[in-house]
Amino acid sequence: MGSPSEKRRSTDALYPHRAMIVCAAGGRRTEADALAQGLGVPLVGELPDEPGSLALVLTDERLQVQLTGPGAPGPVYAEFVTGATARRGREAARADEGLLRAAGARHGQTPDVIDATGGLGRDAWLLAALGCRVTLVERHPAVAALLADGLKRARDDETAAEIAARIELIEAEAVAVLGERTADTVIVDPMHPPRRKSAAVRKEMQVFRALVGADGDSDRLLPAAIAAARRRVAVKRPRGARPLPGPAPSGSIDGRSTRFDIYAGGAREA
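Structure (tokenized):
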């Protein structure tokens, strides 16, 4: 077990901004205590007014993350039962989604997938809604906590439980997981600048950047993904951005503001 100073250095590296847990639900104090201990951040009584902090707030309904202070963007959370992600999942079978084409999940094909950069799980949910088994990997413990909360609520909902059961969440470094597992398809979505035309995406990316900082390991992630994929790797990029450093993609699938670069997998078929 590490010393207090080692734990403090580790916490500082995880949270570029001052982070805390806020329990806004009277009956969930025990959960809040456990969450604070597990994430290595303090539990406070209420959301502070001053700017510059980042709070994981446990409400009666969910776990959410938000910046503090006047003018801060609203909360961000993982949601699969209601809203846009749920609707996208319900329409998966007939949707012309670039993600599905990039993953090879079309025309009755349901490859098993490793989503190496979990985020809020939206792509994983769409693939699982189509019938794919998805291993959802997230390295940051606070983001993994948001995902675990969203998936628990989905498993408790009769309309979403079947889809949620096809998703396995792993809190770990993606490169480590890719060194131990293979899948038909590996999805990689490195953090990139938000699309300026979308206020919702701008809010989410602002909060995520405050939470996790810069994404500095995409150069290691691509070769690891290629080695773990039996069929293909799909890398999500802004439409005008260069491909990730490394081998050239074998093709791409363009969307309105993003594209998927496709790489042949290097793992042997099972």
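The chain has two domains: 4-67, 83-264. Confidence is low (pLDDT under 50) at residues 1-9.
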